[in-house]
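call fold(seq) -> C-alpha coordinates
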Amino acid sequence: MSTKPEEHVRYTRNRREFLTDSMCGFGALAFAQMAQAANPLAPKPSHHPAKAKNVIFLFMAGGPSHLETFDPKPLLNKLSGQKRPAEFGEAKYQFVQNDAKLLGTKRSFAQYGQSGLWVSDLFPHQAKIADDLCVIKSVTGDMVVHSAAQYQMMTGRILPGFPSMGSWVVYGLGSEASSLPSYCVLPDPDGALEAGQPMYMNGFLPAVYQPSMLRPGPKPVLNLDLPKNVQFDSRRKTIDLIKRLNEQNPDGEDPEFAARMSAYDTAFKMQTEAPEVFDVMKESPATLAMYGVGQEPTDDYGRRCLLARRMVEKGVRFVCVVSGGGPGDLQWDAHGDIEENHLRMAAQADQPIAALIQDLKQRGMLDDTLVLWGGEFGRSPEAQTGKGRDHHNLGFTMWMAGGGIQGGQSIGNTDAIGLKAVEDVHHFRDIHTTILHQLGLNQDALSFLHQGRKERLTEIHGEVIRKAVG
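ret:
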Protein backbone atom coordinates (compact mmCIF):
# COMPACT_ATOMS: atom_id res chain seq x y z
CA MET A 1 0.00 0.00 0.00
CA SER A 2 1.41 3.39 -1.00
CA THR A 3 2.37 5.85 1.75
CA LYS A 4 2.55 8.78 -0.69
CA PRO A 5 0.28 11.64 0.53
CA GLU A 6 -2.89 12.27 -1.50
CA GLU A 7 -2.39 15.00 -4.11
CA HIS A 8 -5.00 17.74 -3.51
CA VAL A 9 -3.18 20.50 -5.39
CA ARG A 10 -1.20 19.97 -8.55
CA TYR A 11 0.60 22.86 -10.20
CA THR A 12 0.61 23.24 -13.97
CA ARG A 13 3.88 21.91 -15.38
CA ASN A 14 3.48 22.25 -19.16
CA ARG A 15 1.32 23.72 -21.93
CA ARG A 16 -0.86 20.60 -22.29
CA GLU A 17 -1.74 20.65 -18.59
CA PHE A 18 -2.41 24.40 -18.80
CA LEU A 19 -5.01 23.84 -21.53
CA THR A 20 -6.53 20.96 -19.58
CA ASP A 21 -6.75 23.00 -16.38
CA SER A 22 -8.24 25.93 -18.28
CA MET A 23 -11.14 23.92 -19.67
CA CYS A 24 -13.61 25.26 -17.12
CA GLY A 25 -11.99 28.67 -16.80
CA PHE A 26 -10.71 30.90 -19.61
CA GLY A 27 -11.29 28.10 -22.10
CA ALA A 28 -14.94 27.89 -21.16
CA LEU A 29 -15.33 31.65 -21.53
CA ALA A 30 -13.76 31.56 -24.97
CA PHE A 31 -15.91 28.63 -26.02
CA ALA A 32 -19.07 30.38 -24.80
CA GLN A 33 -18.16 33.48 -26.82
CA MET A 34 -17.52 31.37 -29.92
CA ALA A 35 -20.79 29.51 -29.46
CA GLN A 36 -22.70 32.78 -29.07
CA ALA A 37 -21.15 34.16 -32.26
CA ALA A 38 -21.89 31.03 -34.29
CA ASN A 39 -24.97 31.00 -36.49
CA PRO A 40 -27.20 28.07 -35.39
CA LEU A 41 -28.85 28.12 -38.83
CA ALA A 42 -25.60 27.77 -40.77
CA PRO A 43 -25.50 24.67 -43.01
CA LYS A 44 -24.31 21.59 -41.13
CA PRO A 45 -22.82 18.34 -42.44
CA SER A 46 -25.13 15.34 -42.69
CA HIS A 47 -24.48 12.10 -40.82
CA HIS A 48 -24.17 10.11 -44.04
CA PRO A 49 -24.32 10.99 -47.76
CA ALA A 50 -27.66 12.63 -48.49
CA LYS A 51 -29.92 12.13 -51.49
CA ALA A 52 -32.20 15.07 -50.65
CA LYS A 53 -31.53 18.52 -49.27
CA ASN A 54 -35.05 20.01 -49.05
CA VAL A 55 -38.52 18.77 -48.14
CA ILE A 56 -41.95 19.94 -49.30
CA PHE A 57 -44.83 18.43 -47.35
CA LEU A 58 -48.20 18.65 -49.11
CA PHE A 59 -50.43 18.27 -46.05
CA MET A 60 -53.97 17.21 -46.96
CA ALA A 61 -55.55 18.28 -43.67
CA GLY A 62 -58.53 16.35 -42.37
CA GLY A 63 -57.67 12.96 -43.84
CA PRO A 64 -58.13 12.13 -47.54
CA SER A 65 -59.73 8.78 -48.27
CA HIS A 66 -57.40 6.06 -49.53
CA LEU A 67 -60.50 4.33 -50.93
CA GLU A 68 -61.28 7.23 -53.26
CA THR A 69 -57.72 8.03 -54.35
CA PHE A 70 -55.00 5.35 -54.70
CA ASP A 71 -56.34 2.12 -53.15
CA PRO A 72 -59.12 0.49 -55.25
CA LYS A 73 -61.21 -2.14 -53.44
CA PRO A 74 -63.60 -4.01 -55.77
CA LEU A 75 -64.87 -6.16 -52.88
CA LEU A 76 -65.87 -3.04 -50.96
CA ASN A 77 -68.08 -2.01 -53.86
CA LYS A 78 -69.52 -5.52 -54.04
CA LEU A 79 -70.38 -5.53 -50.32
CA SER A 80 -71.63 -1.92 -50.25
CA GLY A 81 -74.73 -1.58 -48.09
CA GLN A 82 -73.92 -4.68 -46.03
CA LYS A 83 -72.46 -5.09 -42.57
CA ARG A 84 -68.71 -5.60 -42.40
CA PRO A 85 -67.95 -9.36 -42.47
CA ALA A 86 -66.61 -10.59 -39.13
CA GLU A 87 -63.45 -12.05 -40.66
CA PHE A 88 -62.07 -8.54 -41.22
CA GLY A 89 -61.97 -7.93 -37.47
CA GLU A 90 -62.94 -4.89 -35.41
CA ALA A 91 -62.15 -1.20 -35.76
CA LYS A 92 -62.70 1.71 -33.40
CA TYR A 93 -64.07 4.89 -34.88
CA GLN A 94 -65.02 8.30 -33.62
CA PHE A 95 -68.53 8.54 -35.06
CA VAL A 96 -69.42 5.38 -37.01
CA GLN A 97 -72.21 3.44 -35.29
CA ASN A 98 -72.23 -0.29 -34.61
CA ASP A 99 -74.93 -0.89 -37.20
CA ALA A 100 -73.09 1.02 -39.96
CA LYS A 101 -72.93 -0.48 -43.43
CA LEU A 102 -70.00 -0.65 -45.82
CA LEU A 103 -69.88 2.16 -48.38
CA GLY A 104 -68.60 1.54 -51.89
CA THR A 105 -66.96 4.27 -53.92
CA LYS A 106 -68.32 6.01 -56.98
CA ARG A 107 -64.81 6.72 -58.23
CA SER A 108 -63.28 4.73 -61.07
CA PHE A 109 -59.66 3.58 -61.10
CA ALA A 110 -57.19 2.96 -63.90
CA GLN A 111 -53.49 2.16 -64.20
CA TYR A 112 -51.15 4.91 -65.37
CA GLY A 113 -47.60 5.32 -66.58
CA GLN A 114 -45.12 2.61 -67.38
CA SER A 115 -45.43 1.46 -63.77
CA GLY A 116 -49.17 0.84 -64.03
CA LEU A 117 -49.86 2.69 -60.79
CA TRP A 118 -53.53 2.72 -59.76
CA VAL A 119 -54.99 6.24 -59.53
CA SER A 120 -58.66 7.25 -59.34
CA ASP A 121 -60.42 9.71 -61.61
CA LEU A 122 -60.39 12.11 -58.65
CA PHE A 123 -56.74 12.91 -59.56
CA PRO A 124 -56.44 13.16 -63.37
CA HIS A 125 -53.38 15.41 -63.07
CA GLN A 126 -51.53 13.26 -60.55
CA ALA A 127 -52.22 10.30 -62.82
CA LYS A 128 -49.88 11.96 -65.34
CA ILE A 129 -46.98 11.86 -62.85
CA ALA A 130 -47.61 8.25 -61.74
CA ASP A 131 -44.08 7.13 -62.57
CA ASP A 132 -42.65 9.72 -60.16
CA LEU A 133 -44.78 8.62 -57.21
CA CYS A 134 -43.98 6.04 -54.56
CA VAL A 135 -47.40 5.27 -53.12
CA ILE A 136 -47.38 3.73 -49.64
CA LYS A 137 -50.78 2.09 -49.08
CA SER A 138 -50.09 0.68 -45.63
CA VAL A 139 -49.49 3.69 -43.37
CA THR A 140 -50.81 3.55 -39.81
CA GLY A 141 -51.09 5.91 -36.85
CA ASP A 142 -52.15 5.50 -33.25
CA MET A 143 -54.95 8.06 -32.97
CA VAL A 144 -58.34 8.56 -34.58
CA VAL A 145 -59.03 12.17 -33.51
CA HIS A 146 -57.69 15.07 -35.56
CA SER A 147 -55.57 16.89 -33.01
CA ALA A 148 -53.69 13.88 -31.64
CA ALA A 149 -53.24 12.38 -35.11
CA GLN A 150 -51.92 15.69 -36.46
CA TYR A 151 -49.46 15.95 -33.59
CA GLN A 152 -48.21 12.43 -34.27
CA MET A 153 -47.93 12.97 -38.00
CA MET A 154 -45.94 16.18 -37.52
CA THR A 155 -43.94 15.50 -34.34
CA GLY A 156 -43.99 11.75 -33.72
CA ARG A 157 -45.98 12.24 -30.48
CA ILE A 158 -49.70 12.39 -29.77
CA LEU A 159 -49.35 15.35 -27.38
CA PRO A 160 -48.34 18.97 -28.09
CA GLY A 161 -45.01 20.38 -27.00
CA PHE A 162 -42.65 18.30 -29.13
CA PRO A 163 -40.65 19.55 -32.14
CA SER A 164 -42.11 19.10 -35.60
CA MET A 165 -40.23 17.26 -38.32
CA GLY A 166 -39.53 20.62 -39.99
CA SER A 167 -37.82 21.92 -36.85
CA TRP A 168 -35.87 18.67 -36.44
CA VAL A 169 -34.64 18.86 -40.04
CA VAL A 170 -33.41 22.44 -39.66
CA TYR A 171 -31.84 21.59 -36.29
CA GLY A 172 -29.95 18.77 -37.97
CA LEU A 173 -28.93 20.44 -41.22
CA GLY A 174 -29.25 24.19 -40.79
CA SER A 175 -30.34 26.22 -43.77
CA GLU A 176 -28.93 27.30 -47.11
CA ALA A 177 -31.25 30.32 -47.24
CA SER A 178 -29.42 33.29 -45.72
CA SER A 179 -32.12 35.79 -46.65
CA LEU A 180 -35.22 33.65 -46.06
CA PRO A 181 -36.63 31.62 -43.17
CA SER A 182 -35.31 28.07 -42.98
CA TYR A 183 -38.69 26.43 -42.30
CA CYS A 184 -42.02 27.79 -43.56
CA VAL A 185 -45.68 26.80 -43.20
CA LEU A 186 -48.16 27.97 -45.84
CA PRO A 187 -51.58 27.54 -44.18
CA ASP A 188 -54.95 27.28 -45.90
CA PRO A 189 -56.92 30.55 -46.05
CA ASP A 190 -60.05 28.86 -44.67
CA GLY A 191 -58.62 28.82 -41.15
CA ALA A 192 -56.75 26.93 -38.46
CA LEU A 193 -56.74 23.19 -37.84
CA GLU A 194 -57.66 21.19 -34.74
CA ALA A 195 -54.06 20.79 -33.51
CA GLY A 196 -53.38 24.46 -34.18
CA GLN A 197 -49.98 26.05 -34.54
CA PRO A 198 -48.28 23.81 -31.90
CA MET A 199 -48.07 20.90 -34.35
CA TYR A 200 -45.73 22.93 -36.56
CA MET A 201 -43.60 24.35 -33.74
CA ASN A 202 -40.08 23.79 -32.42
CA GLY A 203 -41.21 22.37 -29.05
CA PHE A 204 -38.22 22.14 -26.70
CA LEU A 205 -35.69 22.86 -29.47
CA PRO A 206 -34.24 26.40 -29.37
CA ALA A 207 -36.62 29.03 -30.71
CA VAL A 208 -34.43 29.71 -33.72
CA TYR A 209 -35.81 26.46 -35.21
CA GLN A 210 -39.44 27.55 -35.11
CA PRO A 211 -41.36 27.89 -38.40
CA SER A 212 -42.30 31.08 -40.16
CA MET A 213 -46.07 31.03 -40.55
CA LEU A 214 -46.86 32.77 -43.83
CA ARG A 215 -50.16 34.39 -44.72
CA PRO A 216 -52.48 32.97 -47.36
CA GLY A 217 -53.25 35.14 -50.34
CA PRO A 218 -51.19 37.27 -52.73
CA LYS A 219 -49.04 38.74 -49.89
CA PRO A 220 -47.63 35.88 -47.78
CA VAL A 221 -45.51 38.35 -45.78
CA LEU A 222 -46.57 41.91 -45.00
CA ASN A 223 -44.31 44.98 -44.85
CA LEU A 224 -41.51 43.49 -46.91
CA ASP A 225 -40.84 46.75 -48.71
CA LEU A 226 -38.73 49.45 -47.07
CA PRO A 227 -40.83 52.35 -45.78
CA LYS A 228 -40.95 55.46 -47.91
CA ASN A 229 -37.92 57.76 -47.54
CA VAL A 230 -35.93 55.01 -45.79
CA GLN A 231 -32.79 53.98 -47.63
CA PHE A 232 -31.21 50.55 -47.58
CA ASP A 233 -27.98 51.78 -45.92
CA SER A 234 -29.94 53.58 -43.23
CA ARG A 235 -31.97 50.48 -42.40
CA ARG A 236 -28.78 48.38 -42.29
CA LYS A 237 -27.25 50.79 -39.77
CA THR A 238 -30.38 50.60 -37.62
CA ILE A 239 -30.29 46.80 -37.56
CA ASP A 240 -26.57 46.80 -36.75
CA LEU A 241 -27.15 49.24 -33.87
CA ILE A 242 -29.93 47.07 -32.43
CA LYS A 243 -27.67 44.05 -32.68
CA ARG A 244 -24.78 45.78 -30.90
CA LEU A 245 -27.07 47.01 -28.14
CA ASN A 246 -28.50 43.54 -27.66
CA GLU A 247 -25.00 42.08 -27.44
CA GLN A 248 -23.84 44.55 -24.80
CA ASN A 249 -25.13 42.80 -21.70
CA PRO A 250 -26.43 39.33 -22.51
CA ASP A 251 -27.91 37.71 -19.42
CA GLY A 252 -26.46 34.23 -19.73
CA GLU A 253 -27.69 31.81 -22.38
CA ASP A 254 -31.15 32.84 -23.56
CA PRO A 255 -32.24 30.96 -26.70
CA GLU A 256 -35.44 32.99 -26.99
CA PHE A 257 -33.45 36.22 -27.00
CA ALA A 258 -30.93 34.79 -29.47
CA ALA A 259 -33.77 33.77 -31.78
CA ARG A 260 -35.24 37.28 -31.61
CA MET A 261 -31.88 38.78 -32.55
CA SER A 262 -31.58 36.37 -35.46
CA ALA A 263 -35.12 37.22 -36.56
CA TYR A 264 -34.27 40.93 -36.81
CA ASP A 265 -31.40 40.17 -39.13
CA THR A 266 -33.42 37.71 -41.23
CA ALA A 267 -36.28 40.19 -41.50
CA PHE A 268 -33.91 42.84 -42.83
CA LYS A 269 -32.39 40.45 -45.35
CA MET A 270 -35.89 39.46 -46.46
CA GLN A 271 -36.54 43.08 -47.45
CA THR A 272 -33.79 42.74 -50.03
CA GLU A 273 -34.48 39.28 -51.47
CA ALA A 274 -37.88 37.99 -50.34
CA PRO A 275 -40.06 40.43 -52.33
CA GLU A 276 -38.67 38.87 -55.49
CA VAL A 277 -39.19 35.32 -54.19
CA PHE A 278 -42.74 35.88 -52.96
CA ASP A 279 -43.94 37.54 -56.16
CA VAL A 280 -45.05 34.43 -58.05
CA MET A 281 -46.48 36.59 -60.83
CA LYS A 282 -42.94 37.03 -62.12
CA GLU A 283 -43.14 33.47 -63.42
CA SER A 284 -43.85 32.86 -67.09
CA PRO A 285 -47.49 32.67 -68.24
CA ALA A 286 -46.93 29.00 -69.08
CA THR A 287 -45.75 28.21 -65.54
CA LEU A 288 -48.64 30.11 -63.95
CA ALA A 289 -51.11 28.26 -66.17
CA MET A 290 -49.50 24.91 -65.31
CA TYR A 291 -50.11 25.54 -61.58
CA GLY A 292 -53.62 26.92 -62.19
CA VAL A 293 -52.74 30.40 -60.92
CA GLY A 294 -55.28 33.00 -62.01
CA GLN A 295 -58.17 30.59 -62.36
CA GLU A 296 -60.54 28.92 -59.93
CA PRO A 297 -60.60 26.72 -58.01
CA THR A 298 -56.82 26.19 -58.28
CA ASP A 299 -55.53 29.76 -57.82
CA ASP A 300 -54.85 29.68 -54.08
CA TYR A 301 -53.23 26.25 -53.76
CA GLY A 302 -51.46 26.80 -57.07
CA ARG A 303 -49.88 30.01 -55.74
CA ARG A 304 -48.72 28.28 -52.58
CA CYS A 305 -47.27 25.23 -54.38
CA LEU A 306 -45.45 27.55 -56.77
CA LEU A 307 -44.16 29.59 -53.85
CA ALA A 308 -42.90 26.38 -52.21
CA ARG A 309 -40.86 25.62 -55.33
CA ARG A 310 -39.45 29.16 -55.40
CA MET A 311 -38.50 28.93 -51.73
CA VAL A 312 -36.65 25.60 -51.91
CA GLU A 313 -34.95 26.95 -55.02
CA LYS A 314 -33.48 29.65 -52.74
CA GLY A 315 -32.38 27.17 -50.09
CA VAL A 316 -35.33 27.00 -47.70
CA ARG A 317 -34.98 23.63 -46.00
CA PHE A 318 -38.57 22.59 -45.18
CA VAL A 319 -41.90 23.89 -46.53
CA CYS A 320 -45.36 22.66 -45.49
CA VAL A 321 -48.20 23.54 -47.89
CA VAL A 322 -51.57 22.91 -46.23
CA SER A 323 -54.70 21.95 -48.19
CA GLY A 324 -57.79 22.38 -46.04
CA GLY A 325 -58.53 24.55 -43.04
CA GLY A 326 -61.27 25.79 -40.82
CA PRO A 327 -64.19 23.72 -39.56
CA GLY A 328 -65.63 20.47 -40.90
CA ASP A 329 -65.70 19.77 -44.57
CA LEU A 330 -63.58 22.77 -45.52
CA GLN A 331 -60.86 20.17 -44.91
CA TRP A 332 -60.63 16.68 -46.42
CA ASP A 333 -62.85 15.68 -43.48
CA ALA A 334 -65.71 14.05 -45.35
CA HIS A 335 -68.12 13.01 -42.59
CA GLY A 336 -71.26 14.08 -44.41
CA ASP A 337 -70.70 13.45 -48.12
CA ILE A 338 -67.49 11.87 -49.38
CA GLU A 339 -68.32 12.63 -53.02
CA GLU A 340 -69.04 16.35 -52.62
CA ASN A 341 -66.12 16.90 -50.26
CA HIS A 342 -63.42 15.05 -52.17
CA LEU A 343 -64.47 16.31 -55.60
CA ARG A 344 -64.26 19.88 -54.28
CA MET A 345 -60.97 19.45 -52.42
CA ALA A 346 -59.33 17.55 -55.28
CA ALA A 347 -60.38 20.21 -57.77
CA GLN A 348 -58.46 22.76 -55.70
CA ALA A 349 -55.27 20.75 -55.18
CA ASP A 350 -54.77 18.08 -57.86
CA GLN A 351 -53.48 20.30 -60.68
CA PRO A 352 -51.10 22.36 -58.46
CA ILE A 353 -49.66 19.19 -56.90
CA ALA A 354 -48.91 17.61 -60.28
CA ALA A 355 -47.51 20.92 -61.53
CA LEU A 356 -45.13 21.10 -58.57
CA ILE A 357 -43.66 17.67 -59.37
CA GLN A 358 -43.41 18.47 -63.08
CA ASP A 359 -41.86 21.88 -62.41
CA LEU A 360 -39.28 20.52 -59.97
CA LYS A 361 -38.43 17.78 -62.44
CA GLN A 362 -37.95 20.02 -65.46
CA ARG A 363 -35.69 22.32 -63.42
CA GLY A 364 -33.56 19.43 -62.21
CA MET A 365 -34.69 20.03 -58.62
CA LEU A 366 -36.72 16.87 -58.03
CA ASP A 367 -33.55 14.85 -57.61
CA ASP A 368 -32.74 16.58 -54.30
CA THR A 369 -36.20 17.78 -53.20
CA LEU A 370 -38.27 15.20 -51.33
CA VAL A 371 -42.03 15.71 -51.68
CA LEU A 372 -44.42 14.06 -49.20
CA TRP A 373 -48.22 13.92 -49.70
CA GLY A 374 -50.86 12.83 -47.21
CA GLY A 375 -53.01 13.58 -44.19
CA GLU A 376 -53.23 12.58 -40.55
CA PHE A 377 -55.30 9.46 -41.39
CA GLY A 378 -57.60 8.02 -44.05
CA ARG A 379 -61.36 7.38 -44.14
CA SER A 380 -63.45 4.43 -42.96
CA PRO A 381 -64.83 1.67 -45.24
CA GLU A 382 -68.13 2.04 -43.33
CA ALA A 383 -70.56 4.82 -44.05
CA GLN A 384 -71.26 7.66 -41.66
CA THR A 385 -74.64 9.34 -42.09
CA GLY A 386 -75.20 7.34 -45.26
CA LYS A 387 -72.81 9.18 -47.63
CA GLY A 388 -69.78 10.15 -45.54
CA ARG A 389 -66.77 8.35 -44.10
CA ASP A 390 -65.29 8.61 -40.60
CA HIS A 391 -61.64 9.00 -39.52
CA HIS A 392 -59.53 5.89 -40.09
CA ASN A 393 -56.02 5.25 -38.76
CA LEU A 394 -55.61 1.48 -39.27
CA GLY A 395 -54.45 1.63 -42.88
CA PHE A 396 -54.29 4.56 -45.31
CA THR A 397 -52.19 6.05 -48.10
CA MET A 398 -49.37 8.58 -48.36
CA TRP A 399 -46.91 9.10 -51.20
CA MET A 400 -43.36 10.33 -51.65
CA ALA A 401 -41.57 11.62 -54.72
CA GLY A 402 -38.10 12.94 -55.53
CA GLY A 403 -35.15 13.17 -53.17
CA GLY A 404 -33.83 9.74 -54.15
CA ILE A 405 -37.20 8.01 -53.66
CA GLN A 406 -37.87 5.28 -56.21
CA GLY A 407 -41.00 6.37 -58.06
CA GLY A 408 -43.48 4.36 -60.08
CA GLN A 409 -44.24 1.83 -57.38
CA SER A 410 -46.81 0.90 -54.78
CA ILE A 411 -45.67 -0.32 -51.36
CA GLY A 412 -47.83 -2.31 -48.95
CA ASN A 413 -51.52 -3.10 -48.97
CA THR A 414 -54.66 -2.91 -46.91
CA ASP A 415 -57.07 -5.82 -46.77
CA ALA A 416 -59.78 -6.42 -49.36
CA ILE A 417 -62.11 -3.74 -47.99
CA GLY A 418 -59.42 -1.21 -47.00
CA LEU A 419 -59.95 -1.68 -43.26
CA LYS A 420 -56.47 -2.59 -42.02
CA ALA A 421 -52.91 -2.47 -43.34
CA VAL A 422 -51.83 -6.10 -43.79
CA GLU A 423 -48.70 -6.01 -45.94
CA ASP A 424 -45.48 -3.99 -45.42
CA VAL A 425 -47.13 -2.05 -42.62
CA HIS A 426 -45.46 1.31 -41.89
CA HIS A 427 -46.15 3.61 -38.95
CA PHE A 428 -45.74 7.40 -39.13
CA ARG A 429 -42.34 6.93 -37.46
CA ASP A 430 -41.18 4.99 -40.54
CA ILE A 431 -42.20 7.92 -42.73
CA HIS A 432 -40.16 10.23 -40.47
CA THR A 433 -37.18 7.88 -40.44
CA THR A 434 -37.19 7.61 -44.23
CA ILE A 435 -37.30 11.40 -44.66
CA LEU A 436 -34.37 11.81 -42.28
CA HIS A 437 -32.45 9.01 -44.03
CA GLN A 438 -32.82 10.67 -47.43
CA LEU A 439 -31.59 13.94 -45.94
CA GLY A 440 -28.51 12.18 -44.62
CA LEU A 441 -29.67 12.23 -41.00
CA ASN A 442 -29.56 9.30 -38.60
CA GLN A 443 -32.58 9.12 -36.30
CA ASP A 444 -30.42 8.16 -33.32
CA ALA A 445 -27.75 10.80 -33.87
CA LEU A 446 -30.35 13.53 -34.39
CA SER A 447 -31.22 14.00 -30.73
CA PHE A 448 -31.60 16.76 -28.15
CA LEU A 449 -31.14 16.49 -24.40
CA HIS A 450 -34.43 17.53 -22.79
CA GLN A 451 -35.20 17.05 -19.08
CA GLY A 452 -32.41 14.50 -18.74
CA ARG A 453 -33.42 12.40 -21.72
CA LYS A 454 -32.12 12.34 -25.27
CA GLU A 455 -35.22 13.00 -27.34
CA ARG A 456 -35.62 12.33 -31.07
CA LEU A 457 -38.27 12.72 -33.73
CA THR A 458 -39.12 9.02 -33.92
CA GLU A 459 -39.60 8.47 -30.12
CA ILE A 460 -38.99 4.73 -30.53
CA HIS A 461 -36.92 3.28 -33.33
CA GLY A 462 -38.41 3.74 -36.80
CA GLU A 463 -37.49 1.80 -39.93
CA VAL A 464 -36.32 3.18 -43.24
CA ILE A 465 -38.81 2.11 -45.91
CA ARG A 466 -36.20 0.24 -47.94
CA LYS A 467 -38.43 -0.41 -50.96
CA ALA A 468 -38.92 3.34 -51.27
CA VAL A 469 -35.25 4.32 -51.15
CA GLY A 470 -33.98 1.58 -53.46
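The longest strand covers residues 54-60.
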